[in-house]
Amino acid sequence: MAADEIWILGINMTKFGKHPDLDTVDLAAEATMRALSDAQVTMKDIGVLAAGNLMGPGRALGQQLQKQVGQTGIPVYNVANACATGATALRTAIMAVKAGECGMGLAVGVEKLAGAGLLGGGGQAKSDGARYEPNGRYGAVATIDGRIGTDTMPGVFAQIGMEYGHRYGGTSFELFARISEKNHAHSTLNPLAAYNKRMSLEQIMGDVMIAYPNTRPMCSANCDGAAAAVVVSGAKLRTLAPDQQRRAVKVSASVLTTDPWEEACQVLPNVNTLTRNAAQQAYEQAGVGPEDLDLVELHDCFATAELVHYDNLMLCQPGEAVPYFESGATWRDGKTPVNVSGGLQSKGHPIAATGIANIWEVCHHLRGEAGDRQIADAKVGLAHVIGLGSACGVHILERSAA
Amino acid sequence: MGQQVPLVDYLVLGESPHLVARECEACGAGFFDRRNACAACGGTSFAPRPVPAEGELRTFTIVAHAAPGIPVPFVAGVVDCGGTSVRGNVINTSPDPDHVRLGMKVRLVTYVVGTDDDGTEAIGFGFEPLEGTDGN
């Protein structure tokens, strides 16, 4: 029988940063064991496993993880969906529980990315051949990255922020840097963040330019990390102990979208429409609106990306993202705190872990367990990720009424 | 002078160099490489459509770090050429925010990318600012 409600029973993220002595399986196992412990269950209680990893060695992560923490014969789904991989793993476990195939599922995401350097652009330019021969989908006779636009992630997302500026005005190098200043300031309260250093606006603007207007601290921090979550149906939860029920967090909405065709979407990725569609569906599913959100963790893979998602998630009126940010609304003491974890720019972005780690952050506040960075009396939160290509995951979470 | 070949097959050389899109005959959506069915409407017939060589710079970035072997800095952007969005570099101007502005008018120009062992020249394209435009 299909499940009526879905709850997060236990969730965990590892410290983000450099873990030279731990491989992807070790990191995934660490997050998994702690998530199971947080849920007060074991692998024997889990009916489905969804495992996400994007840049790893290509082995079946879920089965590797089972060998590390418990082989119970349950179905495993190994998923990859760009930077939305973690959210996709979670959504896969949720769908299995929601369909009634089992009462409890586990989702895990892990990435080893410390020292990875510049992403996108294929890493190494191919040298042009000795004779020009048309090659590939564009019949190119020589390398086109750098000659016809850029494939680098900082450059692609820079254009996404600049395009918003062209459409609505008000953006500047300094404005984007101020968004990064906020997230670096927020991370000083997060002991699990890869970086905990407050940076001044001058430091951020004066740092190494990667792709204008994104300097290095305005780019997501490549690092190692894992996150895992145990999800449970409402019916199953009601059979568990009062303490498990009290700490459970309700998944009021779980949505995954891709980008519908629009002019230009195959020239420069359109991260706006699919995010807006996901947000719209999520608000409808949850029966809440943006004004009800006590905190938001959104996909600030670059400072230029955070701005457009204020608008896409409908935190502000259409076209009003600049004045909305300038009002202070998204600082931790503002109307709708955004990325109080430090976000991808400072907490870090171990790609496949991100879409579960942002859920952990929201759950942490909803459970009142966020310590120094607790958002007081948080009841409802939203977590958003986007992967180029594109895929967008939005989850809305609510504090347990118990 | 040896032969010339375009850097990509959607660049048409000659007296008035221009780009050509594959247009869906049902809905008019344009693509720069092959499709089995139109991503917009599902139509399966396509015809070539010349893209206007002048347009407006809709967005850009100035890439300072790229894959090894790619010369930096360069300006990468998207140009709205009469309703068709085109990916390309802004060239023949200084790659800094004082010389490259959102909304500025640009035109397609070609240049020699390199010469192979047979003496064949590869011709690439970029967009240069139109003179005397108030492109802010």
Task: Describe the protein's architecture and organization.
The complex is a heterodimer of chains A (402) and B (136). By secondary structure, chain A is α/β, with parallel strands linked by helices. Chain A has 2 domains: 6-116 and 223-252, Peroxisomal Thiolase, Chain A, domain 1 (3-Layer(aba) Sandwich); 153-218 and 253-397, Thiolase/Chalcone synthase (Peroxisomal Thiolase, Chain A, domain 1, 3-Layer(aba) Sandwich), CATH 3.40.47. Chain A has helices at 24-39, 61-69, 85-98, 153-168, 173-187, 201-206, 234-237, 242-247, 272-286, 303-312, 321-326, 343-346, 351-366; strands at residues 6-13, 48-52, 76-79, 104-111, 209-212, 214-215, 225-233, 249-257, 295-297, 380-387, 391-398. In chain A, helix 4 (153-168) crosses helix 10 (303-312) and helix 9 (272-286) crosses helix 10. The model of chain A has no long low-confidence stretch (mean pLDDT 96). With 136 residues, chain B is mainly beta. Chain B has 2 domains: 4-8 and 53-129, OB fold (Dihydrolipoamide Acetyltransferase, E2P) (Beta Barrel); 18-52. Helices cover 0% and strands 48% of the residues of chain B. Chain B is built from no helices and 10 strands. In chain B, the strands form 2 sheets. In chain B, strands 1-10-9-6-7-8 form a 6-stranded mixed beta sheet, with no helix packed on it. In chain B, strands 2, 3, 4 and 5 form a 4-stranded antiparallel beta sheet that branches. Chain B starts with a strand and ends in a 7-residue tail after the last strand. The relative contact order of chain B is 0.22. The model of chain B has no long low-confidence stretch (mean pLDDT 94). Chains A and B meet through helix 4 and strand 5 of A and strand 4, strand 6, strand 7, strand 8 and strand 10 of B.
